[in-house]
Automatic annotation (TrEMBL):
It comes from Lentilactobacillus kosonis. Catalyzes the synthesis of alpha-ribazole-5'-phosphate from nicotinate mononucleotide (NAMN) and 5,6-dimethylbenzimidazole (DMB). It catalyses: 5,6-dimethylbenzimidazole + nicotinate beta-D-ribonucleotide = alpha-ribazole 5'-phosphate + nicotinate + H(+). The lineage of its organism: Bacteria, Bacillati, Bacillota, Bacilli, Lactobacillales. Pathway: Nucleoside biosynthesis; alpha-ribazole biosynthesis; alpha-ribazole from 5,6-dimethylbenzimidazole: step 1/2. Transmembrane segments: none annotated. This is Nicotinate-nucleotide--dimethylbenzimidazole phosphoribosyltransferase.
Length: 345
């Protein structure tokens, strides 16, 4: 496994950004979390000049063998269908991306179909993971490869000029894998973390809880062993997300995470790279009922709570207008000196 070393974020750039914000013609901290967002990005980019004009959402697509257990209301073929549909501009994430001027890329790391489309970044590890109830979801080599792919794709899009990266995913039954990861990572009872995923019934959710419990009982991965958790109950797209976070952080580029699946990936990325939290922006608290627990354990505070349950990167994309807004504030507002308010705290 590669050794990931991240440079500390720039406290100098953060201080300079805060001074710029405080000097604007407004109450100190008057823009609340928008100011916190600007300061965080400044530290990551090592510059008080916020720059995110070129942005790209990486959507990692993969299927899950555990779908065989009937944990999802959606057939597995939908992963392949939506992978193409997204590139054609017809999914929720694609429509939102168009409105916020964000490039979208779909990376096939394990779709259970042949995606014969030149727009797809073909990095298929396998036609879906194995059924985690019957055998480990992937081999150790496959787990490492999924992270390597995500890291390399992040490097490539950053080298092409992107200044901020967003992460999304496509994969039927991936909420089952994410719930299993979080349950293993934080010793959470499956009944507390397993949610309704693709709007399944309570009867199916109870079955899904049993499936996750069976897998965890069989493999019992240690809660501090990220690679074994990923290998036994994870997904290729989740591993790729871990790698993309690390790859972007290595290059001083902020990463906007989506919801529940991204937070499962973050829980493992923290074990591999403890400083990773400094580089990620958590977008929203999704409808998946395990999200609240994930947020608590990760000690994160997502910016939005819009009751989203789509995935694909939708929540991450909706953070871009907030960043654009604070960028405009920084360039268009008058300063205290220009207005001569004579403010005295």
């Amino acid at each position: 496994m590669a050794d990931y070393s991240l440079k500390p974020i720039s406290l100098i750039a953060q201080t300079e950004m805060q001074e710029k914000l405080d000097n604007l013609a407004k109450p100190i901290a008057g823009l609340g979390r928008l100011e916190e967002l600007a300061v965080k990005i400044a530290g990551i980019q090592n510059s008080p000049e916020l720059s995110v004009d070129q942005r790209c959402c990486l959507v990692f697509a993969a299927d899950h063998g555990v779908a065989e257990e009937g944990v999802s209301a959606t057939p597995q073929k939908v992963t392949a269908i939506q992978s193409i549909n997204l590139l054609n501009g017809h999914t929720a994430a694609a429509a939102i991306a168009n409105s916020v001027h964000c490039d979208m890329k779909v990376i096939d790391v394990g779709v259970h179909a042949e995606l014969d489309d030149p727009r797809i970044i073909a990095q298929k590890i396998r036609w879906g993971t194995r059924n985690m109830v019957q055998e480990p979801a992937m081999t150790r080599d496959e787990a490492e490869r999924s992270i390597k792919i995500g890291r390399e794709v992040a490097h490539q899009v950053i080298e092409s000029g992107n200044r901020i990266i967003l992460l999304g995913e496509l994969g039927i039954a991936n909420t089952t894998a994410a719930a299993a990861i979080l349950a293993a990572r934080y010793d959470i009872k499956p009944a507390e973390i397993v949610g309704y995923g693709s709007n399944i019934t309570e009867v199916r959710r109870q079955h899904k809880i049993k499936v996750v419990a069976q897998a965890l009982k069989r493999w019992h991965p240690a809660n501090d062993d990220a690679m074994t958790i990923l290998q036994t109950v994870g997904g290729y797209e989740i591993g790729a997300k871990i790698g993309a976070m690390i790859g972007a952080a290595e290059m001083g580029v902020p990463v906007i995470l989506d919801g529940f699946i991204s937070y499962a990936a973050l829980s493992l990325a923290e074990l591999l790279t403890p400083k990773i939290n400094q580089y990620v922006i958590t977008s929203h608290a999704s409808m998946e009922n395990g999200t609240a627990l994930a947020i608590d354990y990760l000690n994160i505070e997502p910016l939005l709570d819009l009751h989203l349950a789509v995935g694909e990167g939708t929540g991450a994309l909706l953070v871009l207008p907030l960043i654009d807004a604070i960028e405009n504030v920084l360039t268009q507002m008058n300063t205290q000196n220009e207005m001569q308010f004579g403010y005295q705290p």
